[in-house]
Each structure stands twice: as structure tokens, then as C-alpha cells.
Design a protein that fits this description.
The protein is mostly helical. The chain has helices spanning about 5-20, 25-40, 50-55, 65-80, 110-120, 130-145, 150-155, 185-200, 220-235, 245-260, 270-275, 280-290, 295-305, 310-315, and strands at about 160, 165-170, 180. The chain has 14 helices and three strands. The chain has a three-stranded antiparallel beta sheet, with helices on one face.
Length: about 325
């Protein structure tokens, strides 16, 4: 009988197997690596045990229980996989530290705040104006399309159709490719940036649509760092602190608020918005109706209006 693998070797096998199937496992990878390290440091022998996992999950001690719950959920997924190879494996209980996911409060930008954000990019001046042009265009695109920052940074020059005023969004693991129609103002801004890059950088080929001053693709870390710099300059320190991702939330909420005030409500259009945003499930789009105060109030008012209406009124609603 073949000798069972140690916990560190089992983790390595698990990560390698899943990555060969196309899973990135970025956070899961380094967290499980710390579990393997903990098993070695504590001189653990034998199969994975619930005691080992629960002890590891509560590190570091001062951390938020949400972080412990996330660590436990990742270890449970590994244990559920590995028990098929080693029946001695103990799958730790779920829910010990509460839910492993929690949506953080979102900041909904006002029109004035978006204008201030775009205006503040002027403080990013460089000799050739590249940083200003890049981040004003990037932030503006996120605000008017609700793109994920990763989707915007993955854009290629050929994904922008200036004539048809559309953007082709490349497929992600859980989201198919989609072509988004653009407002004329957004298309003009992207075209101006495209021409600016061609003139400023004079590159035969461009590796990405959005570039840094050296002609290389923007990284997410760099984009987030520049946004934090602009946010600090604007003095936005209130809770919840505005994030780049909140531009996506703002776009979705504005659409839903506008539609909820119309006769047909949101139900007739929410599937289109879900597709536009690249949500995997339409429930991810419906979440805004209960999570955002103004949408919850608007939905409640519409429900009350329908509840007090006659059947004839409802047929024409």
C-alpha cells in the first residue's frame, strides 16, 4: 500500500491539480502554503485534522473573525478534496467563526464627486502629460460604463471600435466576452486618448489600451495607488472610504434608481444591466435593490403603490 502524503505534500498536489484545470488560486495558494508551513512548524504528523485547521485558521490572533472564517473555508475546500485520497482526513466544521464572506459598505459617488475626481487627475502632471491623460480617461471610463478595473486594464487597442462606438470586453473565467455600446462622449474621450498615445509614445504596437509613461500596461496595484493618491488630495477620508470599485457600484445604482422611477420598474431591464456588467448571476444585480438605501426606499415606495392599486392599474404598470 502506498504511503499517504503528508499535509504539505497533499496541499501541493491539490494546488497543482486545480491550477492545471485553469484555476488561478492566488489567495488560496498562499494561504494554503501557510497551512503547510504551520503543519511543518508544529511537527504535525499524519492526516489533516480539524484541530490543526482550526488552530491555523485563528492566526493571527488579533485578526477579524471574518478573516478566520475565510481561512477556514479555504482549508475546508481542500479537506473535502483530499478526503477522497486519504479517508483519514477530517473535514473541519463550517461556520465556526461565522460567514466567510461579507459585502463591505459601498460608497455611491455624486456627480460632483466624479467631476472632482476627474479634475484632480491634473495633479498627476508629467513632462509629456501621459499620467494625466491615462488616469483621467481610465477613471472616466470606469464611471460611465461600470467596468471592473481588471476589465479596463485588460483592454487592447483593437477592442475599441471608434466607428461603432463599442468596447469588446475579453472573457474572464466566469464571464463570457461581451461588446458594450458606449455613449458618444465616452467614445470621443477614448478616441482622443488613443490618438494621444500614438503621438506621444510612437510605438509600432501597443501591448494594452491603457499605458504608463514608459509605454507598458498599467498594473492594478499602480492604478489603485494612483487613485489613493488622488483620493488623499481630495480629502476623502469618510467611511466608507471611496474605492475605484465603487465607481462600478455607482453606475449600477444610477441605472436602477432611474429605472425604478419609471412605469415599468427595474424587472424589465435588470437582465440587460446584468449582462452589461458581466454578472454571473442576475441575483448579483438584484443585490443592489436591498443593499443601497435609496434603492430600497424606492422599491418599497413602488411596492406600496402597486399594493394599493387596482388590477386594471397593475395591468398598465
Amino acid at each position: 500500500m502506498k504511503k499517504p502524503l503528508s499535509v504539505p505534500a497533499a496541499i501541493d498536489f491539490y494546488l497543482t491539480s486545480r491550477r492545471q484545470l485553469g484555476f488561478a488560486l492566488t489567495q488560496e495558494g498562499w494561504l494554503l502554503a501557510t497551512l503547510a508551513h504551520h503543519a511543518r512548524e508544529s511537527h504535525h504528523r499524519g492526516p489533516l485534522t480539524a484541530e490543526l485547521v482550526l488552530r491555523w485558521a485563528q492566526l493571527p490572533q488579533p485578526a477579524d473573525p471574518l478573516w478566520w472564517a475565510r481561512r477556514l473555508a479555504i482549508a475546508r475546500q481542500f479537506a473535502q478534496f483530499w478526503v477522497a485520497f486519504d479517508p483519514r482526513t477530517q473535514v473541519p466544521p463550517s461556520g465556526v467563526f461565522g460567514p466567510s464572506h461579507r459585502r463591505r459598505p459601498v460608497h455611491i459617488y455624486t456627480e460632483a464627486q466624479i467631476a472632482a475626481l476627474l479634475g484632480a487627475t491634473a495633479s498627476l502632471g508629467s513632462a509629456d502629460g501621459m499620467r494625466v491623460a491615462t488616469f483621467k480617461t481610465l477613471f472616466g471610463l470606469l464611471a460611465c460604463t461600470g467596468l471592473r478595473i481588471s476589465e479596463a486594464l485588460n483592454l487592447r487597442p483593437q477592442d475599441f471600435d471608434a466607428t461603432g462606438q463599442t468596447l469588446l470586453i475579453q472573457p474572464a473565467k466566469f464571464s463570457p466576452a461581451r461588446r458594450l455600446p458606449l455613449q458618444t462622449s465616452a467614445s470621443v474621450a477614448l478616441n482622443q486618448y488613443d490618438q494621444f498615445c500614438q503621438q506621444t509614445l510612437a510605438q509600432a504596437t501597443r501591448p494594452a489600451f491603457f499605458l504608463n509613461g514608459y509605454g507598458r500596461p498599467l498594473t492594478r496595484d499602480y492604478a489603485e495607488a494612483v487613485f489613493a493618491q488622488v483620493r488623499a488630495r481630495l480629502g476623502w477620508t469618510h467611511d466608507p472610504v471611496p474605492r475605484l470599485h465603487d465607481l462600478r457600484h455607482t453606475f449600477a445604482v444610477r441605472c436602477l434608481v432611474s429605472w425604478n422611477r419609471q412605469a415599468g420598474g427595474v424587472d424589465a431591464k435588470i437582465l440587460a444591466l446584468s449582462t452589461y456588467l458581466g454578472h454571473r448571476r442576475v441575483t448579483d444585480t438584484y443585490w443592489y435593490l436591498s443593499a443601497i438605501p435609496q434603492l430600497l426606499a424606492s422599491s418599497a415606495a413602488r411596492f406600496e403603490q402597486l399594493a394599493n392599486s387596482t388590477p386594471e392599474d397593475r395591468r398598465h404598470a
